[in-house]
């Protein structure tokens, strides 16, 4: 059994996870990408998730129980939001809260930006809301226009799935802000968490988040996503 540190070392190795038996499931991930990861057009949505990542977001949300709560940090044009919502569709009481400043208060965003996403022509909340409504997700997605740290300060709802894909310089802060609300058995997943095709700041934070072997199980690596199940 690998420790979490050993798992991450292998996930981030030069050879990659495809050569490690019993460690990663690249065939399954790619299959889920083919089956479920091409529904929404990346170019029109402006999203940056890969098809296998999109397929697994769908699968992970599909595995959640009824009345589950998903918190998404970083919505942008609603691409990953749509895959999460597609997986939840038909689950009674399932709710997604997607946090993003969208195109509001661009001066503050310019001060806080990690410079990974251009602020020019950033999608407006109303545009994303209309897009989600047209896909049939208007009743299960609540778009919160604002900053994750401000939303977390007022948060009070237990979380089944925390998806972190916001400011790449504050992934650890986002996790710590919402950690008190994680249910036992909640999934936490972070995007851009790979040194070869992610961001070093997120890689650093992921190593800290998953450092405690007693807190986490079922670690998984999908392209630039690192995820685990919170033991509580």
Present the secondary structure layout:
Elements: H1 4-11, H2 26-36, H3 42-45, H4 51-62, E1 69-73, H5 79-88, E2 95-100, H6 106-112, H7 125-134, E3 141-145, H8 148-153, E4 159-164, H9 171-178, E5 182-190, H10 200-209, E6 216-222, E7 225-230
Parallel strand pairs: 1-2, 1-4, 2-3, 4-5
Antiparallel strand pairs: 5-7, 6-7
Helix pairs in contact: 2-4, 4-5
Report on the architecture of this protein:
This protein is α/β, with parallel strands linked by helices. It has helices at residues 4-11, 26-36, 42-45, 51-62, 79-88, 106-112, 125-134, 148-153, 171-178, 200-209; strands at residues 69-73, 95-100, 141-145, 159-164, 182-190, 216-222, 225-230. It has a seven-stranded mixed sheet, sandwiched between helices.
Radius of gyration: 17 Å
Q: Quick one: overall form?
A: globular
**Class per helix and strand makeup:** alpha/beta
In total, how many domains does the architecture comprise?
A: 1
CATH-defined fold name: Rossmann fold
CATH architecture: 3-Layer(aba) Sandwich
* Oligomeric state, counting identical vs distinct chains: single chain
Q: How many DSSP H or I helices?
A: 10
Strand content: 15-25%
Strand order, largest beta sheet: 3-2-1-4-5-7-6
What is the highest CATH level, the class? Alpha Beta
Helix content: 25-40%
Q: Describe the main β-sheet briefly.
A: 7 strands, mixed
At the fourth level of CATH, the homologous superfamily is Vaccinia Virus protein VP39
Which consecutive residue ranges, at least 5 long each, have pLDDT under 50? 17-22
């Amino acid at each position: 059994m690998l420790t979490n540190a050993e798992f991450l070392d292998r996930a981030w190795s030069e050879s990659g996870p495809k050569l490690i038996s019993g460690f990663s499931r690249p065939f399954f991930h790619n299959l889920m990408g083919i089956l479920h990861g091409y529904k929404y057009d990346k170019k029109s949505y402006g999203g940056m998730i890969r098809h296998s990542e999109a397929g697994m977001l769908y699968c992970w949300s599909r595995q959640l129980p009824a009345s589950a709560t998903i918190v998404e940090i970083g919505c942008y044009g609603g691409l990953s939001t749509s895959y999460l919502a597609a997986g939840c569709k038909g689950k009674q009481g399932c709710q997604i809260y997607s946090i993003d400043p969208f195109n509001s208060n661009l001066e503050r965003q310019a001060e806080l930006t990690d410079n990974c996403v251009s602020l020019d022509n950033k999608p407006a909340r109303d545009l994303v809301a209309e897009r989600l409504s047209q896909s049939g997700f208007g009743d299960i997605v609540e778009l919160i226009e604002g900053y994750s740290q401000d939303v977390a300060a007022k948060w009070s709802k237990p979380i089944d799935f925390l998806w972190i894909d916001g400011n790449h310089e504050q992934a650890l802060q986002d996790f710590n802000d919402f950690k008190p609300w994680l249910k036992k058995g909640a999934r936490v997943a972070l995007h851009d968490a790979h040194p070869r095709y992610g961001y070093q700041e997120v890689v650093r934070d992921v190593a800290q988040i998953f450092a405690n072997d007693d807190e986490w199980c079922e670690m998984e690596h999908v392209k630039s996503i690192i995820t685990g199940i919170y033991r509580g």
